[in-house]
Every structure is written in structure tokens, then in C-alpha cells.
Amino acid sequence: MVRAPTPHPGTNLQIPPEQRDASAAHAYPRPQLEREHWQSLNGSWRFHFDDACEFTSAAEPHEWPLDITVPFPPESAASGIGDTGFHPRCWYQRDFELMPADDRVILRFGAVDYAAHVWVNGHLVAAHEGGHTPFWADITDVLDPSGRQTVTVRADDDPHELNKPRGKQDWQLEPHLIWYPRTSGIWQTVWIERVGHTYIDKIRWTPKLEGFAIGLEARLRGDLGGDLSLELELRHGERLLARDRYQVVDGEVDRSIALSDPGIDDFRNELLWSPERPTLLDVELKLLRDGKVVDRAKSYTALRSAAVLRDRFMLNGRPYVLRMVLDQGYWPDTLLAAPSDEALRRDVELAKAMGFNGVRKHQKIEDPRYLYWADKLGLMVWEEMPSAYRFTRTAIKRTVREWTEAIDRDYSHPCIIVWVPFNESWGVPELPVVQAHRHAVEALYHLTKTLDQTRAVIGNDGWESSATDIIGIHDYDSNLEHIRERYGAGVDPEKLFDRRRPGGRVLTLDGHPHRGQPIILTEFGGIAFQKEPQPGDAKIWGYTQVTDDETFAQLYEQLLRAIIDTALFSGFCYTQFADTFQEANGLLYADRTPKIPLQRIKAATSRSRNWIPGGV
């Protein structure tokens, strides 16, 4: 898609008008480094299952028996295929029109599960492993001078392999318990953009609230010769906050942008990001060579801090109660892929309408467009690495590589406040007794803290904590008396960690006692309810099942009251946002229809705590 018909300096974009119109509804897929001129390659592609893994190169598939709608995976109904069988390899191909010009053309993929090889006009241009992170290729030198181009993609995704990060994708033919249909192949946007011979490749923003400043890291790519400089304008609405120009040295710019500190909290708060006031600062970037613009892009950032102080989570230097909901990020007809940008925005709006100030994105690296709407509308996000389910060297190496790419992609989103490398000891099942499993968790914790010094990290959420900034507890007991006995007034935290075993697991490992970190109930509830019987009497799954909406509402209200009034907890995360296939424990049905009125959910979720003066 072309966002504007007139090229900016440094580009020479020529995309046919009919293609502009056909893709006009798409939103730019990478919202924190947005270029004006781009073309979506979503839509109809030729498709071929290669179950025998017979073909290896783009020249080999001669028949394309199916058509698929990208970016919806072939297992989904929206793809036009809807085949949920075992398919270890599949192929994609489509043609597009693009005339070569005096610039560079970049082909980008949001995510392909699990390993991808990409050819353009028969030339291999990219290979990438990791089903949740982006990759790209400079295809300038392989473009056909006629303007007719062909892109071919091979996606390998062994449905049975458990030593790769796969999250909630089931390895059995039919989804069981808490696992869901598989997502193979392309499941996020494919697009191309034209850039100059020198262009801004990466931007990284770091808020520095203590000094009322914003850290900027920019990395360039291409021809780095000549006198290069980066010009920046930073605005809050119409108000200019900074206009600076920085010299590029060795293809990099690393600067701290000092803002004028208004001092008084009332004025300061106008510039701070929070769920209640999600203030974003808009950025215009221009790359200049000898004073002439050769690239330009838009971005945004925010001023906010997310930290831990003793037993509380702190947002912008103040204690902040986390009221979160666990969100699987699946849709009935599109699986891991979002139906539309509007659907992503609607999910953020619904979470806020139910009184939550954050979500724990469970076992999924979410689409950047979701993070954009969370940034813009004000919803905090815990980002969690999809698990592998075997402990092998291969599994750990794959997890480290993909987790590193995820942090690199999402570092600059102000909505992200916590990183979670492991969940419930998945992939490291012998943490209490096998040192190598402990080392894996501790290594990922310290690696994450090395890559991002500004956010809290939970090494392993749920139980068996070792290296962690927050202790997360998963407890699905719906007996209110049990909840009060375990976590209520007068409970000694040390006895809690020594004696309680929710899920049959110790909460902290030997040698890693509770050191005063915040304690958060990061999974609880799981109340299953569906008003209408399921087709074919399919069984629903949940931790507690009820049969009518009033019982559902009352149990939710009672649970939330008990948890919110528990002084031990610095926050909570209710399971879950929406029904997900056989899991019927959502506050919303799978189509995002509320099971009970949103106002009633919000009243229970956002009620004030009785034990803190002022109801903080």
C-alpha cells in the first residue's frame, strides 16, 4: 500500500494505483519506525502443502493447487483453507508489480512460523528461524527490469517437534486441555518499502524519568559515506519539546534528549505515560547527507518508568496496583493472526472497559500493532516468551535467539513493563533438582536484564522461582476460605513460601528465598461458563465450571474482592480475557461478546483496596 502518492526526498516510489486502492485499509506494520510509502503484499497467494518435504528450492513446485489469503495461517478458516492436519512444510507464491529505480527495495515479514526461506525471482534472499519475530531482505539487486516480480516462500514447521518455541500450539491432532490449533507459515503482514541508499534501520527509545530525558539510539544501513546527520523533532501534540541535529558517527547516533522539566507534579504528569493518561510523544526523523534529506520516518516514544521497589511495583515512581488479565491472543477464525487492525484495537479497548490496566500476553509475542494500540490507549503489557516443551541444547539456543529478537523488536514500546522468559517451568521441568534447568532460567533472566535495564523480569512465572524481580503465583483454587487462609491478613510470607504448594509446586527454589520482592497472583480464577451448548456436545475446559451467568458473575466478584483486599499481593492477573477454543474460562466469549455486562466486570475489577489509606 502507498500511504501518500507523492514520494518524499530520497525515494522514487512507483506503485500502480490499483494496488494502492486494494490495500488502502492496511495499517503500517511497524508503528515505531513508519515510512510514508510502502506496499502491502497481504492478500491472495498461491499455496501448496509439501507433506513429504519433497521440494527444497523455489524452482521445484510446479503446481499450486490452492489459494490462500495472507496473513492468515492455512489452519485458519479466514485463510480460505482451514486445514488443521499435520503439514511439516508448505509453500507460498505471488506476483507483484514494482519497477526498479535508483533506490533500495526492502521486503519485510512480520512473522513466519517456524523456519522460512524466501526467494525473489528465483534468487534466495532470506532465511530465518523463529516463528514469532520479524525478518527482512534487500531485494534490489534481484528485481526484474520489466517490473513483474515473483516472491516464493517455504515455511517449515514440524507439528510434532517440542524443542522449539511453540507456545500454546498443540502437538496432537485435536486440541486438548490448554493447547490450541497450530499456526503454520505466514501469520503477520508481508510488505515492501523503498528507501534511499542510506537509511534509518533501527530506532531505540529509552525513557529516563529521573533526568526528565529520552535516550535515542539510531542505527543506519547502506552507504555510510559523506557528512551524515540525523535531525529530530519531538512534540507533545502541537507543543515542540526538542528540535536537534546529531552527527552520525560510524553509522550510529546515541544521544540523550533532555526535556525542560516543569518540576511541579501537576505539570510533570501531563508528559508522563500511564494507563490513566497514555501520553505519547511524536517524533519526526530526517536523515541528511551534506544537508540534503535522504531518508525520513515517523516514530513515537513516552516518558514513564516501570520498576520494583521493595514489595511494590512502581509506575512513574509511585506504587501502582496491577490489575491484569491473561490474554492468549487467539481468534476463532484466524488463530494467532489478528483478523484486522480494528480487532487489535478492540481487544485493548475491551480490556480497559473491564477495568484492567494491563494484560499478560500469554505464550505469544504479540503483533506490533497490538502494542501500538496499548501504547496509544493506555494498557500495560507483560511480554512472555512462547515455550518449548523439551529441555535440550537446541531448545535453549532457539529460545535465546528468538527471545533476544523479541526484546530488540519491542524494547521501545512504553506499554511493556515486564519481561517473562519462562512460564510454569515449561521446557525446564526439573528446576528443583537439575542444575542445568536452573542455569537456563537464571541465564535468561540475566540476559534479559542485560538487554534491558529499565524493566522488571520474571525468570519463571507461576512457581519454582529463583532469579526474579517479582514472584508470580498461579493458584486456581476458587474456595474463598482457602484463598484467605493462604494469603490473607496475618500470613507470614516466609511460611507461605516454605509450606504452600499451589499446583503441587514449591514457590521458591532452595537457595532463592523470598527477598522482599513484590508478590503477584499472576494466574487465578479460570471460571468456565458458556450459556449455549457447544456443537456436537463438545466438552469445555476450565478450572471451575458454573452453569449460569449469575453464578459466574457472583463468583468473579467474590474472588476479586478477596484478592484485591489481600495486602500480600501487589497485583493480580485473572484467567482469562476471552474463551479460547475448548477453554471456556473467558470473561468474554471467543467472538469478544461479554458473558456478563462490562460495567459489572469493571466494578469488580477496579474496586478500591480497603487496606491502603486512600484506596490506592
UniProtKB/TrEMBL annotation:
Keyword Phosphoprotein attributed: no
One GO-annotated biological process of the protein: carbohydrate metabolic process
Residues of the Glycoside hydrolase family 2 immunoglobulin-like beta-sandwich domain: 198-304
GO molecular function, one term: hydrolase activity, hydrolyzing O-glycosyl compounds
Domain Glycosyl hydrolases family 2 sugar binding: 86-153
UniProt xrefs under PANTHER family: BETA-GALACTOSIDASE (PTHR42732), HYDROLASE (PTHR42732:SF3)
Descriptive protein name: Glycoside hydrolase family 2
Organism: Caenimonas aquaedulcis
